[in-house]
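note to self: dont lose this again. the chain is below, predicted strucutre after it. 569 aa total, dont forget to put it in the shared folder this time
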Amino acid sequence: RWRLRVYPYGREILLRATPAGRPPNREAHAAMSFEDEEEVNVAEEEAAESEAEEINEEQAQEAEAAGGTEASTGIYNAKTVNDQMFEELRLPSDTVAEVKNTWNTFLHSAESREAAGEAIYAALFDSAPSLQSLFKTPRAVMAMRFMNGLNQIISSLGDPKGLKIVVETLGFQHLDLEVTVPRVVIFRDAIVDLLSVEMGQRFNPRARDGWSTFLNYVGGSYIYVRVKFADRLRVLTQSWAQANARSTSPENAIMPGEEGQDGLEVQEGKEGTEGKEDQEGQEGVGLETKAHATELGERKTKTKTTGRGWFRSKGISDNTVKTGGTEGGEATNEDGTKDFRNTNVPKTYEDMFMFNAAVMGFGGHTWMNEVLASFDTIVTNVANSYRLQEECDVLSLRMAKYKGAINLAEYKAVMLASLRSLVKDWGSQHEVSWSWLWENVERMIKALMGKPAAQEAALTLLFGAMDEGMQGIVRREVYSKFFALAPAGQDYFKQSTTRLHFIADKLVTMTLDMYRDPKRMVEDISALGLRHVGYGIPTDLFGPFVTACVQVVRSLTDDDKAEEAFRWS
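---
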């Protein structure tokens, strides 16, 4: 049996046939066999691509015959997706006003911002279920990301320069997603059709053209950033390996769409190292681990011997740069003459950064330690948007504990000075690539700075006001909603009721501890993750579990800040 779906496409009607047994939601969709899912996905992609080409061609001909309208002039328009350039989008002021007015009206017509986000999420994935495989984030979280992203873009429509920065940052966060023109068309039409249904006559042609134009602009920019900036990613990968005395080759460079370095993480409140298992076994990994452990041991021994680090001192002492041999810091040969060949010059990025930070007068800026501890993970996962976002989130939590002013531009100055000293073939392309990386990371961190303290306060107030009755609701309803969303989860929760209640209580405590002590929580969650690997828990169940937890908390409070804090944590 087949199910027939009807979609409006301008003046035409699109009929798409899909298997009647196809599950409507994400969790059930994940239960399809790999072969069936691949066949359906390929069919949908091919259909969408051919449909987009035909429709764009017809619409272009219509626009040309009409002599060109407001929506079909200039570099960007409401008809086609331009992925060949990335310039500023300049919309007429009356069009910007119509877009903002329809957006605000849509938000007010929904019960809440969460409900509006859920409506966008449902409209998108109902129109193209195959797109669900691109998003690994739980539905409750992903819906709000759609909301926040659209709100950020619409707020900047009147500022072309600011809009371009916002879109480039979002494109930077989508480097690992294969954004294509057909997918942009699906996304654009799903949102425009949703607004058309919800708004009715208030969604006039000017508003429709404005929405279609800026959605085409955003989608085309994502494609441009992913394709055109591939060389920058290659430069980053190769120069970073050189700066840390690692072997690399062009074929090993992480490119957009590749998984990056997935694996087990060892967190010591510092940095996670990720790796792949090769086909020949673990011998190479074991040798590398031993070498890394030896290097760490030497560093710890050296630290204990000197009793001083760059950031623990206000400046550079006379013995900061050691020259092995004698107490005075002068190396000597057997005949007593000075030997300058054994001068201990920093040879890794971390050592060179600490050296330059002290020399440049930033020795007292201890917040740089936090960025330095996460920087390797940030660089190696630059093409893995989910991992990169997680690292920036945790980094913002750690930096929130710092008392004092934080100027992220100072880190960039020390970073570039250190890399120039370590990368032998440093040139203009390196300068542009590393500046581009840090500017995008800086914007991601700045977007979160100041929020953790307020979110921690709101979440503390919420949990502090919970009496025994509300705690009982949390303990029961979390599992009820989770089993409704993912029935397969019942097979993994066979413990006693007391144990299940303990898990629910622990969950609430951990969301608050993430704000209070992020370093310890990263270690605890890493250990907990390893235990779940041993239990064989499917990762597909994590999303429905988070969604169930958010739904329960949403039913217990009207405080949007507390709910957002819980969802984020």
